[in-house]
TrEMBL record, chains A, B, C:
Gene3D superfamilies: NADP-dependent oxidoreductase domain. The lineage of its organism: Bacteria, Bacillati, Bacillota, Bacilli, Bacillales. This is Aldo/keto reductase family oxidoreductase. Keywords: NADP, Oxidoreductase. Belongs to the aldo/keto reductase family. Aldo/keto reductase 2 subfamily. The keyword Lipoprotein does not apply. SUPFAM superfamilies: NAD(P)-linked oxidoreductase (SSF51430). InterPro entries: AKR, AKR_Detox_Biosynth, NAD(P)_OxRdtase_dom_sf, NADP_OxRdtase_dom. Pfam families: Aldo_ket_red. One of its GO terms (molecular function) is oxidoreductase activity. It comes from Alteribacter keqinensis.
Length: 300, 300, 300
């Protein structure tokens, strides 16, 4: 599988696996190991986490798989996030839902992630959401300590708009290596508002969450969903597939911003569908036909 | 006529002639030559084209005038554009309406423009619209080849917002020399959203399309059109003219972004009206009175 | 009181006094002197003006206090603004409401301010509003002359968005030292649209006008006002105060952009309330609870 180089000694697989709903799948540790091994066999070596996924449980479940099969760790890149505070039985000290990007919170969050994931380093740590209370000097100090101690190799952000990314970057010694944002043929905001343009200006590859738009395209009855589904089905037929998720992935993969879609499924068939998308090459006609179906009108 | 310097060896006339509707005028080649000569006599030496104008016909019609009178070429600057793909009997290979800013398309489009315009160089090539699929590395390669071969002297963009312009510029060796956008007293978007501010930050003069708002001000019955027309008429009376198009041009010309209005008329009287506008100097009171009429309220 | 360093030899007090409504208070010169002395005793040494405040009267009223007690000048920093033109009996030459940021107007405005304020230097001059007709080269020339002559020590802007600030800065030799904008828990625009992010990127402290939202929170009956007032009251109780203005100031003061609230009151009790806010430390839970009450929903 194609790999995306982010630093001299770190690259991601073009398709990333997301552990967002790992807790929902009720897998045994053996099943989780199998899922991870299936991904790696397909070339998907990058796994995306966040401290809060599954109410602070998913890192732990994934970590048990690593513990059961320690050789896995060296064959993968681990991405995780911090900065959101949720009320949860697993974090009784949390009194309300808010953000916390203080130095203390970032470092504590990483310590928890390392412990849960049963690893001694994170490949990439992301600030999960732009925090209106973010003190960039504190973030810079936290990143610096975590890097110096070897606990985190690289840093990035998630859901940042241009001004937020430029502001934080100006306080950091190292380049932020990715911005993980929502992008799909259904959800065009980050394509249209300049977020992807800024990432390209910074030569920063993008990770896409909800690349399938969370199911809206598959089952939605709204005009936009129906219009887009019809067009995806038509283009799929031209490409020789009845699986419109392959077309949705292929649409993202063609974009010049070097987008790595995050596949958040526990089913090997759904994962293979994303991998197959790498083999489809949309024509410009097809790419714009899908864009037009999503927008409801042509480009000017 | 005032000239706007864009590089050491290229300048534009402050008023630009636009060949957008040349095909509609049904001129003989002799009439087109006369029109061009009239422009040049008035000091309008910069002519604006696009591959797609008139369904891919206007460059050809203009080129016949150059062919009939080859001395004209050295007395003018030719601007043309590429990047929009239209379905047209003149481009049977086009299967749908979309954008194409691939290296191959840009170079092929320029070859076509050179052939149609009967010239061996374009003074300025513009990317016609911001393309969500634009690969800036390919654009950079295309520009570089076209410049090295002498086929295009300088490059710019059209209808680009700030993030799009900054992104593309970051991949290019040479400065983009203009951004051609819609600007008029009626259509304030590019004044209000920071597009002109960015051009000023880059010391990049602006070309204005639809400087008369495509007739909306002259004949519109909407509140905004009536309000603006009344104010333009009043200011025109103060300046000693009954021609509100002169006031519309003068309003743009006073803006500090160094805006070159594109006059898209085939009638010498309309062209002369733009030239006369250079002689009007609006006061700040008058400039803001027109702005307020367009916005429907005062500045804060 | 905490001081905010803006250059090697200039700092502001964290709380700034605003003379916007000085004319409305109908103070004798003695009362104005008392007010100023009260501020200075509390550590508030920075006083914010504009040429237009009170219909071009407030600088004069303040200047009488300085004239009556010349020792005051050395104990304070004077900020004033220019660039708005208002019709007023005090400026019979003004024929309409508009902006004027020409070199001539800026310099004339400063001469008037110096004469009214009875001082021979302004610590900081701000361009009051982003002017769509601003010629940045003229502004740069005006600033340069005013600095060289010793009449103005530093320069800033007010109500500028990112593109306007970046554009003007690119023409200036010296850094703009502040952007004075509306910020409060009620009015979040400049927090949400990236204006404060850009100020942080430029390491530029911010002055906040209407930090109490002009009374909307205290007496408004709209859903937002009621919701915010209830939350401020609750948080106030947690902090041990019944004065929600202290909570509003504390909310701003906690923001990492280094915001200096401008207190526009002539009553010592209201001024002391702002000073007391410096002693309150909101928790992150409290800060976000107030944010959520203002937005009407949680952060994502």
């Amino acid at each position: 599988m194609e790999r995306i180089t982010v630093t001299n000694d770190l690259s991601f697989s073009r398709i990333v696996h997301g552990a967002w709903r790992l807790n929902d799948w009720n897998y045994t540790t053996e099943q989780t190991v199998s899922l991870i091994e299936h991904c790696i066999e397909q070339g998907i070596t990058t796994f995306d986490h966040a401290d809060i996924y599954g109410g602070y449980t998913c890192e732990e479940l994934f970590g048990r798989a690593i513990q059961a099969n320690p050789g896995l760790r060296k064959r993968m890149e681990l991405v995780t996030k911090c900065g959101i505070v949720l009320e949860s039985p697993n974090r009784p000290e949390h009194k309300s839902h808010h953000y916390n990007t203080s130095k203390e919170h970032i470092i504590r969050s990483v310590e928890n992630s390392l412990s849960s994931l049963k690893t001694d380093y994170i490949d990439t740590l992301l600030i999960h959401r732009p925090d209106p209370m973010m003190n960039p000097e504190e973030v810079a100090e936290a990143f610096s300590e975590l890097k110096d101690s070897g606990k985190v190799r690289t840093f990035g952000v998630s859901n940042f708009k241009r001004h937020q990314l430029n502001m934080l970057q100006s306080y950091l010694d190292d380049k932020l290596i990715t911005n993980q944002v929502e992008v799909s043929a259904y959800e065009l905001e980050n394509i249209q508002d300049g977020t992807l343009d800024l990432c390209m200006e910074h030569r920063m590859p993008v990770m896409a969450w909800s690349p399938l738009a969370g199911g809206a395209v598959f089952s939605g009855n709204g005009e936009k969903a129906v219009r887009l589904r019809d067009t995806l089905t038509k283009v799929g037929a031209e490409l020789g597939t009845e699986d419109i998720s392959e077309v949705l992935y292929a649409w993202i993969l063609k974009h010049p911003a070097t987008i790595m879609p995050i596949v958040g499924s526990g089913k090997t068939a759904r994962i293979d569908s994303a991998v197959r998308a790498l083999g489809h090459k949309l024509s410009l006609d097809q790419w714009f036909e899908i864009l037009h179906a999503s927008m409801g009108h042509d480009v000017p």
